[in-house]
């Protein structure tokens, strides 16, 4: 027993029942995101033309990746691009149904991990090209990490689920997410981003409804007051703090909610709420964007987070 008067530190995990309900709510949100994606990707233009076109390597990507996409496009064309596109939409529908219903959750979540990773190497272009203007590794790799978060948050029946096991699962997700933020932060320190940080917000206004344009313009005007270099440095510092906090497990009481709000802020400005949601293009507006999924992972970590509490014995 702790010595009287001596401060004792212990893991103070959330109430298990409340935590289960929170994980279920996050799973339902993720499922609704997949419903949105599936509905958009059922558009005939995406099925018939844009799916195959979206796989083509972007200018500036490595020769080996260009060869890979050429091979993949040839294989898909030989099988029948519309059929392959429909298959990917069907997989997305399966993921949505499982997430919303809880049926076959773990095996389907593993399918989600693999499926989104493979699609990241194709439609996601590995997040590249990693040339001037790059900011992150792309959307689909973050989807893959979210499925990993789900698997860690909702362990298999019979798996260890004591305090140590929960802390271990939290640590795995924290380190993976920290590595992702380290990559993001590194790109924010590039001279191109710092000198052109305002352009990401300005570009996101194109094709948007008037209220979103007006909303983003508020931030554009504010950034002009302080200077886009100052804003670029702020973004770089903020993402570095998030990355270091996640990797070092320091300041999580502040880093996790800050990261959540920061991700929402980026999504509603530089990503234009994931839009514009007009004609299907195969990119942008066909999914809800990248940083909204970052926010979802922050939410998972906040629910999983085991705060240290010091109490007098």
UniProtKB/TrEMBL annotation:
It comes from the Bacteria. Signal peptide: none annotated. Keywords: Membrane, Transmembrane, Transmembrane helix. The chain crosses the membrane at residues 25-43, 71-96, 103-120, 140-160, 172-190, 230-248, 255-275, 287-305. This is DoxX family protein. It comes from Acidihalobacter aeolianus.
């Amino acid at each position: 027993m702790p010595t009287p008067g001596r401060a004792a530190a212990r893991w103070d995990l959330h109430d298990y029942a409340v935590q289960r309900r929170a994980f279920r709510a996050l799973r339902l949100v993720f499922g609704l995101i997949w419903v949105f994606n599936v509905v958009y990707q059922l558009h005939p233009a995406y099925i018939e033309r844009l799916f195959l076109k979206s796989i083509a390597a972007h200018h500036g990507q490595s020769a080996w990746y260009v060869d890979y996409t050429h091979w993949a496009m040839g294989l898909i064309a030989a099988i029948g691009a519309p059929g392959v596109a429909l298959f990917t939409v069907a997989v997305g529908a399966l993921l949505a149904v499982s997430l919303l219903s809880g049926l076959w959750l773990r095996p389907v979540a593993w399918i989600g991990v693999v499926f989104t990773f493979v699609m990241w190497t194709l439609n996601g272009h590995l997040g590249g090209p990693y040339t001037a203007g790059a900011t992150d590794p792309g959307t689909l790799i973050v989807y893959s990490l979210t499925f990993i978060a789900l698997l860690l948050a909702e362990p298999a029946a019979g798996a260890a689920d004591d305090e140590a096991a929960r802390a271990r699962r939290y640590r795995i997700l924290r380190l993976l997410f920290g590595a992702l933020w380290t990559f993001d932060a590194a790109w924010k320190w590039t001279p191109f981003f710092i000198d052109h940080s305002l352009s990401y917000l300005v570009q996101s206004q194109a094709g948007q409804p008037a209220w979103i344009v007006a909303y983003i313009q508020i931030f554009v005007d504010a950034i002009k007051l302080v200077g886009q270099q100052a804003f670029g440095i702020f973004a770089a510092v903020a993402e570095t703090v998030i990355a270091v906090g996640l990797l070092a497990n320091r300041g999580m009481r502040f880093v996790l909610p800050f990261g959540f709000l920061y991700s929402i802020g980026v999504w509603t400005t530089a990503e234009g709420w994931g839009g514009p949601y007009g004609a299907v293009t195969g990119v942008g507006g066909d999914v809800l964007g990248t940083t909204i999924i970052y926010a979802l992972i922050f939410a998972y970590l906040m629910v999983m987070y085991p705060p240290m509490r010091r109490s007098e014995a």
